[in-house]
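note to self: dont lose this again. the chain is below, predicted strucutre after it. 462 aa total, dont forget to put it in the shared folder this time
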Amino acid sequence: MPTVTRLTDPMFGSPAVLDIFSDPGTVQRMLAVEAALARAEAQCGVIPAAAARVITEVCRDVGAIDRDALAQAAVAAGNFAIPFVRQLTAAVAARDADAARFVHWGATSQDIIDTALVLQLGDALRVLDTGLIRLGEACAALATAHRATPMVARTWLQHALPTTFGCKAAGWLDALRRDLVRLDAARAQAHALQFGGAAGTLASLGDAAPNVAAALARELGLAVPVLPWHAHRDRVVEVATTLGMLTGTLGKMARDISLLMQTEVAEVAEPAGPGRGGSSTMPHKRNPVGCAAVLTASVRVPPLVATMLSGMVQEHERALGGWQAEWDTLPQIVTLAAGALRQMGEVVAGLQVDAARMRANLDLTHGLILGEAAMLELGGRIGRLQAHHVVERASRRAVADGTSLRDALARTLQEEPAHAGLLDDAMLDRLANPANYAGQSAAFADAAVQAWQSALAGRATR
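---
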């Protein structure tokens, strides 16, 4: 468990991802890159094998780097790789002065920082992938269990028509499926070594450069790009935009669930637990705290993604400000997205669904929500426009008399000789049942679950 550096870390983050992007996590991966570089160069005959062994041994000790001194020295250096290399060289020299000559051979600061970031992203995106699949499975379970559970569909926050809760959960699920596809693509793009030397030409390694790059990539389990990408940031920005959209999906889910939790609606509830959702002054409160955390992330992440997009406009071969702007921004995006995914996973896995309240809320308008169904059924007999006028009159009558649309429509039809007998009691009863006007809701729920399962099966075969 990482040390909590801010009181809000446990609320808005994911323990595993916070650990990956912690200062020790960053230093550990920078050391891993330097060790791999030394081994790769030894394999290619660029530096002595003995030197590579010493460098690798020193790089196994994260404590070899004084992080406080690193942070202070970075102020003057302009990045933390320069004092990092200085400290690492000193630590190697304490073991073997000759080996110290070959620390960081042929690389540049950005090679180490970017490749360490790529390693962090690989580890973090695996955590996100696991969480996304877990959340998708929970949504699929809801979509299946409630494929035919009727509820109110709301447009502009008002009652619209009947739908099913399974269809609503299916909407969440299908968005998550698309996020999963995007996450796969972003992870593949970001899985690339950064190794270009001072100006992206690897002139420092001469003819050995391609072999060293290939060996370094093998050591780290990364792909070798066509050429170094120091000033071309689309790889990491794609991660940012993908996680921005994922956070938006999670925010949409949180908005839906929190609105359904309102006292006047009360159709679902977040899982209960000791101390969860309470108030410091109102003992009766049960607040949607998980949704609040997710919505917080969905507010914070978009401006961070905009920063990443703005930073793409970089100068020539190495950036002046745009690259540096990523250092804190991208880890925040990844951490917030992971935290939101963790919170929403817990909410959906334990979501309490009140099907009886959903059915009761469908009856709040005494059948007015089914006016379209009545109009279309009647329209098949007398034409749509004429049917609209009849149902409209019946709707006004139902409101004025405090009765149901079914009964008001029956009386309205009986009082108009031209329309008497058009809809018998059995048909009126069928039209008054919300479950009969949920359209393709259940089929859509089934289709979303099938698409999700197919996506998972497709990934398993790759």
